[in-house]
Write a structure and sequence with these properties.
The structure is a single chain. The chain has helices spanning 6-13, 17-31, 47-73; strands spanning 36-39, 42-45. It has 87 residues and is mostly helical. A two-stranded antiparallel ribbon has the order 1-2. The longest helix is centred in the C-terminal third of the chain and has 27 residues, at 47-73.
């Protein structure tokens, strides 16, 4: 997690901060543990978040690949994806 804040991540991804926060909270609820901690200095990965980050990146990379391949099959040059992860 390199942005340090959900607001900065939202700006980079061209999403809303509440949308990103909701997605993270939903994933945390599904997994049953916290991925990030929030405090005045920003956001930080928890130990579990650090452990899960490579897997989350792999999923997002595969998601982008699937969308790009589908776009190629459909005759488009590229797919504009908002599921990028800040490395």
């Amino acid at each position: 997690m390199q942005c340090g804040s959900l607001t900065k991540a939202a700006e980079i991804l061209k999403l809303t901060q509440p949308g990103i926060s909701h997605a993270i909270t939903s994933l945390e609820n599904e997994l049953g543990f916290s991925l990030i901690t929030r405090n005045r200095s920003g956001i930080h990965l928890t130990h579990n978040g650090e452990h899960m980050l490579p897997y989350i990146r792999d999923i997002l990379t595969l998601n982008n690949t699937i969308k790009q391949e589908a776009a190629a099959i459909n005759g488009f040059r590229s797919w504009s994806s908002k599921s990028r992860l800040i490395y």
